[in-house]
TrEMBL record:
Keywords: Heme, Iron, Metal-binding. PROSITE patterns: CYTC, FA58C_3, PROKAR_LIPOPROTEIN. This is Cytochrome c, mono-and diheme variants. Residues 762-921 form the F5/8 type C domain. Coiled coil: none annotated. It comes from the Bacteria. Pfam families: Cytochrom_C, DUF7133, F5_F8_type_C. The keyword Ribonucleoprotein does not apply. The keyword Membrane does not apply.
Amino acid sequence: MKYTLFLSLIIGSHLLFSCKRENTTPKPVDVVINSMSDSLPVLTLPEDVDPENEDWAGIDLEPKSPVLPLYPEQEATKFLLPEGYHIEPILTEPQIEQPGAISFDGNGRMYVLELRTYMLSADSDGTLDPKSRISRWEDKDNDGIYETGTVFVDSLIFPRFVLPYGKDCILTMESDTDNVYKYTDTTGDGIADKKEFFTNKYGRSGNVEHQQAFMYYGMDNWLYSTVNAFRVKETPNGVIREKTGYNRAQWGVTHDDDGKLWFQGGASGVPSHFQFPIHYGNYTIENELAEGFKVPYGAAVKIADMQGGMDQIRAEDGSLNSVTGSAGNDVYRGDRLPSELYGQYFYGEPVARIVRQINPVVFEGLTTLHNAYQDEQSEFLRSTDPLFRPVDMTTAPDGTLYITDMYHGIIQEGQWAQKGTYLRTKIEQYQLDKVIGLGRIWRITHDSKERDKTQPKMFDKTPLELITYLEHPNGWWRDKAQQLIVLSRDQSTAPALRKVALSSKNQLARTHAIWCLEGLGALHPDLLETLFQDPNPKIRIQAIRGSETLYKTGNKSLAISYLKLLEDDNIDVALQAMLTVKLLEIPDYQKALSKIVKTNQAKGIQTVGSQILTPTKQENRWNRNEVLLSEVQQKSLEKGKIIFNELCVQCHGNDGTGTPLGNGTVMAPPLSGSIRVQEHPEYIIKTILHGLEGPIDGKTYAAGIMVGNKEQSDEWVAAIASYIRNNLSNEASTVTSEYVAEVRDKTVNQKGTYRYPELIHSVPTSLPLQPDWKITASHTAPNRIGGTASPKSAFNFEGWTTGENQKEGMWFQIEFPIALSLTGIQFNSPPISRGWREGSPPPLQTFANSYEISTSKDGENWEVLDNGEGSDQDFKLDFNPVLTKFLKFKLTSTVKDENEIPWRIRQLKLYVLNTKNELSK
C-alpha cells in the first residue's frame, strides 16, 4: 500500500509539471513576500557584541526594508550585459526549486539538480533532510521554454551531481555517502524505476559545500569530480580507478577543445586547476592569474552581505571588492554566440552577483588568466538584484549559454553565518533567510544569431550515425556523440572512426575520433605511430595522451616514440611528452628530461621539467579522509608490488584489468576496482592461499584456474593481498600477517582450490543499513551544521558522536526486526583535527577508551562478544557467527582529559555470511 501511494504521488508530480510556465502563476514569489514582516526588523546583537566596538565601526546597523524577490520577468530587467546580448528565462519556479546545476542527455532533455534543502534558514536547518530531487525537462514544442517535466529521482539527501549516462539513465550520489548509483527509467515515463550500484569509495565528510561534486565525463572517457584526487572509468570488466593530482575545487568542472579539464575553486573565488590535465599531477606555476584578476566589478547591490566583512566591501555601493566565492564553470564551445566567445572560460561569483568571462592566454606552454572586462572595470554579466546567485554555466544543445541561478537569499553555509557574525547581522537586517524555494535557468543569446532549433535525437541514431556529429560546430554535440559511441561498445564503428582520425579536414572531429577509439579499446599502435608524426601538433598531443592506455596495459614499445617526441619542435608537444614520460615512469626518463631542460629554454619546459627532476611533496588539505600508512604497512605494500609484477601480471595485466586476448576477453578475472577484492579481506586471502577455478558470476576466463600459495609465508600473503587491495584502482584496508594466520588456521581443512560459489558463501559480506533497523544511543550530538543528528548517521560519512566527553555507561545500540547471524564488525572513529599547520597540536583521538560489545536475542539477557581498550581509529572484529537481535556498544570507563574527547562511530559495517539469505528471512 505504501509503495502504491508513493507511485501515485510521483505520478501526480509528473502531471503537475506538464504545463506551460507562462500559464502557471508564480506563487512561490508571492509566498516568500508574504512571509516577510511588514515592519522593519529589530536587530538583536548578542550580549557580548558592542556596536561601539571598533570591529563594528562604520557598519550600518539601522533597520532596513527586506530584500523582496522579483518575478523572473522583473529580474531580467536587472541584468547588465554587453551590447547585443540578451537574457531570457527558460525554466523557473514553481516547476523547479533551488537549482544547483544542469546537464543534458542525448535527446537534449535537461536534468536539473534541485538542492531543495540548501540554507532554508540561517542555521542550516534541515539541510540533510531527504527532500531534494533531480528533475528532467523538455521543450516539446520547440519554442525555447522547457515546459514538460518529471521528477526523475526524488527524496534525495542533498545530491552531489547529476550526470546523464546513456539513454534514460543518470549517475548521482547523496551527501555523506560513499556510493555512486545509476538510476534508469526502464518504462519511458520519465521517472527512474531502477537503481544500480555504480562505484564506491567516492564520498568524503565535511559540510555540504565541501564535499565532492560535479561528476564529469571528460574527453578522455574518464569520470572526474571536484575534491576527489582520483578518476574512475567503467570498463566491460567493472569500474576502475586511478589516482590524480589534487584539483582543490568545490563546485564546477568543465573541459576545452583539447580535453583539458578546468576545475573551479570555491572560497578562493578563482579557478583552482587548469594548466594541464589533472591526471598528470600538480605543478606550481607562478603568476597564472593576471594582475588584478581577483578584483570583481559587480553592480551596486547596496546590502553589503559579504561573509568577509567590511574589509571586502566597497563602502560606496556595497559591492564585493575581492572575489570570495565561486561556483559553476564552462568553457563556451557553442556556435550561436559571437565567435570571440568560443573557447572563453565563464564562471559564476554568486557573492558578487556576476558571471565572469575569462580569456586564457597561453605563452610557451603556460596559461595565464585575464578578466576579459578588467580594462572596463566590468564583468560579462552583472545584476543589481541582490538575489541573483549564478551557480552553474553550461553550453547548451542550442548553441547558446545557459546560466543556473539559485535565486536565493543566503549563499553561505550556516557554519559561517552564526549568531554574532557580521554576515548573520546582514542576513537578519534584510531578511535574506526568508528568500527560499525559488530558482531560474536563463538563456543568453546575441543579436548576430538565433539559437539552434534543431532538437537532438541522438538516442534514435545508431553508433555509426553518431559519428557525423563529431564534426558539429557546437562542442556539446561532439561531446555527447563521443560519449554515446563509447558507451555503446560497438566495435563495428572502429573502421569509420579510424578514417576520421586519419583524414578528416576537421581537427576537432579527429580529436574526438581518437578518443572514441580509445574508449572502445580500438586505438591500435600502428595508427598511433602515424598520428605521432601528424603535421598538426594538436593531433600529436591527443595521440600521446590516448596512447597512455596502451602503455599501461603492456605495450612498452611506445616508450621509444615518447622519448623522440620530447624533442618535438612544438613546445606544447614536447611539454605533453614530458608529462607522459613522468606519468608512465618511462625507463631512464630523467636522463632524457635533463637533456631537454638544458636545450629548450621555453618557460613551460623549464618550469615543469625542473619540478619533475626535483620534486617537492604536494599537500592536499581537502583530502581529509586520506589514511596515513605506517612504516610496516608501507614496506608490506612495496613487497606486494614486487610480487605482483613478478607473478601476477601475466594473467591479471599490468593494471589489474586482466591481460587482453582480443574481442573483449581477458586472461583472468579483473582485480582493478573489484568490490569483492575491496570488501572483506577474507576473499582475497582465501583465494591466494587455496586458489580459485571455474566461472565467476557466470563468466569463464582463459586461465581457468588460479593455483593456491599455501606454501608461502603469512607475510608474503599479507603483502600481495595488501598491494592488490590498495592499488589497481582499489582502496581498502591493508592485511596483517597475523590475520592471514587466522584465516589459514580457519581454512586448514580446505581440500583443493575453491569454486566461486563455495568461496563467496564462505566470506563475510557487509549488510547494508535497512530502514526497519531501530538504532538508538544514550547521547547524540547535533551534526556538523547544527541540524538534527541521528544514530543512523554512524553508517555513513556524517557519523555519529556523543558530542561530549566519554563517560562510563554511554552506549550505542542496534535492534534488528529479526535475529541475524552476524560474523563481523568494522567502523572508523575519525580523530578531531586541532589545526593543519606545522606545529599544530596532534589530533584528538575519538575511539573508545575502553569498551564492551554485547549481543542479545531478547534485549534482556546479554552475552559479551568482546571487550578491551581502544588503540586505533579503525576498529575491526571478526567472530564465529552469532545469532542476535540486539547489538550494543558500551563504554566502560570515563576519559579524564583537559580536552573534551567525544566518542565517534563512522562508516559502521556489519558482516554476515550470506546477505541475500539474511535479508530474505
